[in-house]
Amino acid sequence: MSLPSAFDAGVVAALSALDAKSVKHVFFIACGGSLSIMHPAKFLLDQHAPLPSDIYNAAEFVARAPRSLDRNALVIFCSMTGTTKETTAAAEFARSKGATAIGLTVEPASPLAEAVDHVVGFEAPYTTGVPIDAKNSNYSRIYQIVMGLVALTGGEDLTETLIDSLVALQPAIDRAHATFAPMFEDYAPRFAKEDVVYTVASGASYGAAYSFAICVLMEMQWINSQAIHANEFFHGPFEVLDKNRAFILMKGLDSTRPLEQRADEFLHRFGSAENILVLDAEKLDLSGIDPQFRGNVVPLIFFDTLWRFAYKIADLRKHEMLEARRYMKKISY
Amino acid sequence: MSLPSAFDAGVVAALSALDAKSVKHVFFIACGGSLSIMHPAKFLLDQHAPLPSDIYNAAEFVARAPRSLDRNALVIFCSMTGTTKETTAAAEFARSKGATAIGLTVEPASPLAEAVDHVVGFEAPYTTGVPIDAKNSNYSRIYQIVMGLVALTGGEDLTETLIDSLVALQPAIDRAHATFAPMFEDYAPRFAKEDVVYTVASGASYGAAYSFAICVLMEMQWINSQAIHANEFFHGPFEVLDKNRAFILMKGLDSTRPLEQRADEFLHRFGSAENILVLDAEKLDLSGIDPQFRGNVVPLIFFDTLWRFAYKIADLRKHEMLEARRYMKKISY
Prior knowledge:
The structure is a homodimer.
Chain A: H1 9-17, E1 25-30, H2 32-36, H3 38-48, E2 53-57, H4 58-64, E3 73-78, H5 85-96, E4 100-105, H6 111-115, E5 118-121, H7 125-128, H8 138-152, H9 159-167, H10 169-191, E6 197-201, H11 206-221, E7 227-229, E8 246-251, H12 257-270, E9 276-280, H13 291-317
Parallel strand pairs in A: 1-2, 1-3, 3-4, 4-5, 6-7, 6-8, 8-9
Helix pairs in contact in A: 3-8, 4-5, 8-9, 10-13, 11-13
């Protein structure tokens, strides 16, 4: 089989160099925001192939040294700047065990790029300030890797369908901004006053909830947070819910949507609607995105639109999104 | 090979009935507090065998329907009362796919016990109020399953060493209570006033941090919380740290201890020592526990001793540990 011509050249080069059928285990390794995209990637792989995989924080991965890490392992890393020390060290560790390492990064001359077998570039608006097309994002590139791997290891070849859907993603994001804008305008003044804001999601969307909690709310706004899995919510966390508590709930379109729907009903039963921001993918116009990938791309739409909500909160709090840091990249640690 | 005579009879029966070499994938499935013990179980398996495994919340597992779930999968469930609906449904789902299901529960006549192929009983003090011996806990039983599986699938046979260590665990817990008591006495009045308390850990201890955050702090005390992975801490969450913020840090003895050590140093550099409760396993007398399993059993010691800290906080807050619930088992949902 051959991969679609519209696939990213870096993805094609990495997968072509690989003896795909020898891959017995996939590891998805990164830190923080880059780790968050590994959750939807594993979700996609779990759906389409019986190929085992693990997601680990890069430092955990090295210290744990899982026995499945050997020459038949494929390890996929991501670091936007390519300078995350733990991730580079993990790439060196993986290669020392004979595994094949693919590194996703914006910077092709970075330490991570040097440490891996194959570099896959991507674009991120946060480095240049220039808007990107979502088909060039880390999500898009890792989805191409996963579905390419599925096809190359004997699974169904959905690569053409995937790439067509990824090309249709940016227009869908642009429409989503307009769809959610009035709700963000309404909720921002209340959320800007909160000291604790939880995010809730499951399935393909859990990573986006994790990233918004730790990288945006905690890191950029110093707001206390946690990403709560939509069903785990009912096994402890829901007891913190009252009429004043703020939640952001993602209702996606993947097979776990009923879990998020159940959380939605409970949140509205015992919380206040004005403190529960619900991003419901059923409200989005997803034209051009194949139904079988809608659930997979929705978290990127959620995350991208939520940046606008975050900036509104930041303005109201007078707390700079990209500059206000006590520690990150300001001191050595 | 034969399993040690000191192994639990239920574990021996389950493993003896299994064609261990046909097992290609292990799933660790539960909800909430029972899900938390799956993290150290997977850590132990990752350390000792190249056998792939996944941890999923029970409802996520069913909705996700991973392609690795087939007749060559072994699925290990846990529910203390055996009445957790999502877990029972997941056991039925797993068996419908041809997988072998082992269920850990205190109640041998419960719905979960009915739904699985093999029941493994355990003891929990929370059901009877009577203290148990830790060698009969869910941790102990799942570790016996994991190390039995490692031995039966061609890995090193450490089952005798494990069971000897588990027999030595309760005395170590009893000594740990005395070791940590003065620190708990000191910290409880301050922590009782906190609205947000984070837990931090990695490796084998992450599950204990998760359980204390969602089942004890959030569920039982309505205190906002999150279990932060000790290295993920540096990739976002650490920005919420200031001199007033409260953290509970677990410093275990497994291979990820340097990650927890690094978090410890940062917490003490920018936080206040009086708001950072550190459980350091190096302070414990672990006589009788083999060095190669010390890192694995330490989280149970942490969790067991932390109950005493939680009860102290509950007394000071006048917020009942076991009775004060708004929703759990008080309403239908």
